[in-house]
Each structure stands twice: as C-alpha cells, then as structure tokens.
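anyone else get weird line breaks when pasting these?? whatever heres mine. first is seq + tokens for prot A
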Amino acid sequence: MTGHAPTDWDPDPRDRRPFRLDAWITAHRHELVPPVANRQVFRQADMIVMVVGGGNQRNDFHDDPREEFFHQIRGDMDLVIWPTEGEEPFHMPIREGEVYLLPAGVRHSPQRPDPDSVGLVVEYQRPLGELDGFEWVCFECAHLVHRVEIQVQAIDRDLPPLFAAFDADEEVRTCPNCGAVHPGTGARL
C-alpha cells in the first residue's frame, strides 16, 4: 500500500486491500455528525459506499433514480416511505442485522434517532446529467412543500448545504397547498 492507513479509503483502486469495517467505523465515528451523519468509505469508485451514524437530523425525502442497499449494522433505523403526494408517509423499521434493497424512484427518508446506531448504505454513482431529488413533505397535509434536484458528486458533502438553504427560507418551507410552515431539518417525521 502507498502509505494509507488500513482503515482509510485508498485513492488508487489498484492499491486497495481488505480492511475491517468495524475498525473503519471506530476510526471515523467522530465524522458521522448531523444533519446527515454519513461519510463515504471510498471516493474513487463506481459505487457510493457510505457509513451512516445515528442521531441524524433530516426529514427530507430522497428520490434516488437508482436502487439503494441498506445494511443496519448497529441499532435500528426507520426508513420513512412517501408513496405519493397527498398520501401520508409510512414507517418501515430496519432492525440491527437486517438488509433491505430499496427500489429506484421510491421517495424515502432515512431516520436514525438512536445516536449509537450505524448502518452501511450502498448506492450507484450517478452518471453526468442524472439528478437526485430531495423533497420536503408538509407535516399537515402530506403535499410537496419543496423539491431540489442536484447532480450528486460527494453525497456526504453535497447534502448539508441543501438542508441549510431549506431551513433558512421560510417562504420555501411554506406549503403551497395548506399554508403550513415546515418546521425544518431537526423535526422528526
């Protein structure tokens, strides 16, 4: 290897070696901070492999054009699914040790209220021009409040500015259907 710690990602894929994921999690746990609480394991890869810690503060819904794989390593999480506008979101728990493959295009909000929970999430890298949607649903009437589409490049870096911009703009947080003001990122679904 070229001087990288065995618990860190390797910038040159030819130099990658197996490592213990639990050691990687221990070494990077301090980086798993809200609002999303995630960190990519490998940056130079065709897959987005990330570890997500508990205590996240998000209530947006991710509209991913590709499938997502969830493996709940420690503790439990709650994957909130929003089937369609005007229909109430529903909760789907993913327990410690369970895996789930989320179909493409299913709007979902990963909730990890337990600060000690840890999960592994694997997504496809998006080709240039393929956008991800991030949506906020009205807590009162279950209609769309706001949607942002972005080209995801580094998911752990791209999302916090989206949430900050949403939180800072009350007009954007106001439901066009019923007029209720969305409480912002810290509120739980």
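and prot B, same format (seq, then tokens)
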Amino acid sequence: MEADQGDRALSADYQLGHPMHIRTTPKLSKIELNGKQTLIIPDDDSYNRFVKLLRYIAMAGKVGDDPENGVSDTGGKERSTMAAGGGTDGQTGASPESRTDREKQVRALARIEDSASYEQLQKLVGLESVKKDVVQLANLMKMQVRRKEQELPEVPFSLHLVFSGNPGTGKTTIARILAGIYKDIGVLSKGQLVECDRGDLVAGYVGQTAIRTKEKIEAAKGGILFIDEAYTLARGENDFGQEAIDTILKAMEDLREDFVVIVAGYTELMKEFIGSNPGLKSRFNKYIEFPDYTADELVKIFYTMTEKYNYRLTDKAKEKAEEKIRKMEAEKGPHFANARDVRNLFEKIVTNQATRLAELPDADIREITEADICLV
C-alpha cells in the first residue's frame, strides 16, 4: 500500500480512545487499528510520514507501549517503540518517565472549562479573586503544555505556590481543585492532593525527618504536596524542620516536571518563612491571597451545608441563624476561622436538633427550629 493511501486509511478508520498496535519487521510494518483494520507500510522513508500523524493520535487517543494499550514493537532491532511524543525509547518499551509524559499529554487536549474540577471551582461561594488567579494560572500552564507538544521552547515558570490567608478561607479546597485541573489539562499525571503539616514531616531524631518527608513526597508524585502552616518547619537552626525543608527543596528540583508543592498559612508568617531561606524564595514566587469571607458569603455557606444534608429551617430559624452568623463576622477576633466556624455552628445546631427529637419518633427530622439555634 502506498504511503498516501495509508494516511487516508488512518484518518478515516482510527477511532480516538481505541488501542493502536505497531509491529515492525526488517521488511514491513503492520499497524492494527481498533482491533480490526490492518495497514502494511513499506519499511522505508515513507514510515516517517506516519510519525507526525501518530504523534497527534498519541496525544488524543491511547497510544502506548504494551499489547493491551498502545504501541508494541515486535520487530527486534529494526524499529524502536514509539512513545506518546513520537520519539523513541529503545527496544524495551517506554520508560516510566515517557509513560508519565504520555499520560499528561493525552489529557492536554481538554479545555479547562471541560474539567469537572473547574466546575467545582465556579460553584464555590465567594473567592472571586482566587478563582481568577487559578484560571489564569491554569491557562498559563496549559499553554506551556501545548508549546511542549509542538516542540517549542517552554518558559520556565514555577508551578509551586504560596497560599496565604486566615483559617477556613478555602485554601485546602482550592489546592484540591487545582490538582484536578492540572491533571485534566496535562500538567500533572495523577492530580492527587497529599496534605501534611509539621507533625507529618518532622521526627524527633536525626535522619528520620528525611525519611518521613520522602514518604510524603513519594505519595505526592504526579500531584500536589500541600503543607499547612509551613512556617512551623523553620523554628531554628538546630531544629529538624530544616531537614524537611532541604528534602522538599531537592524534590522540587528533581521532580519539577510532575510535582507541585503548595505551602499555606497566615499571610505575615508565610512571608517571613519564604523570606528566611533563599532556596524557598527562588522557588516560591507566586502568592495567592485568600481573603476572609463577608457576612453574606458566610450565610450562603451555611445554607449550602443545610441543603447538602437536606435540612429545612423554619422562618424563625433562618432569622436566628443569620443573626448569629453576622454577629460572628462582625465580632471576629484574631482566631476567627471563617467557613470553619460556620461549619462548627452548623454541627452544634444539628446536635441540638438531634437531642430535641430523640424522644419524638414521628417528628420531621429534616426541620430545624429556632430552639435548635438559640441553644448554641
């Protein structure tokens, strides 16, 4: 079959998302499409014409390096197995690195707006400036993925972030959403979020902190390592927290293609933490500030909780709940925890309702009354 006929057959018959197998011999190459179609291609310069087309298919469909899911090479020395980017990786199949790269590239064709995580982002109450920052960042990273696909030079932007703000402002939630978006657009291969704090990383004796920290890093490969109250790692020169910082900095360099670190905490303390170490300052140059919720936003968050768990408030109960939430916001002190405090209020109300209804088997267990709120 002539090469141009092969081009047409590939374009016409291949269905994205189905396996493709390539087998080569000294004389010919056989390509199986969808488990049915077979093309015999002369093993000469015309083979190279298929490489460009296969690169596209590798991005959009399932082209791999094993018999069940991808490109397989059974021809010995004549051909090397093609990885997702159209390159070769020898006779032994794709390396873990190239497979990771392939997984990210396959997802890179998705639009940010098509991501389920993006939809979750837009449904969040408030945080408009944060949402804008996240979308801007995701668009920037998506363009870098596309540049890489087209073999253009990538601008070396840092993926690592500082989330600063008071407790209960959505930092962990946004980190989880960002991990999902990065997975969907091809920046990260897995998109998991691994949460930790000082207690998860720092041990009480020499050598053990590095082991603990490496375990968390290993769990976060392909996703995001989220370190809450990261400034607690820097308590002094002789503190084992410095060992954790050094281990994390090394991983940020070694795994920079498929690993993101987000450090989070109070605004001023995070600035001091990043500024205290040149290694941190050079790697964390993007800050996202999380503002406190307004009283109206806290009320919306409360009603989101009641709707999620199918509770119904009487009119008097609504008035009382809103009054309490607005008072909480107006009188907030340095330890005010925003949505976390609203969550605590909701749980206390539900507890009071359960106590009130314990001896009333026929009562409506969905209804919350003014009495349930007044007892808080």
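btw re prot B: Residues 128-149 form the longest helix (22 residues). Residues 229 and 265 are 5 Å apart (CA to CA).
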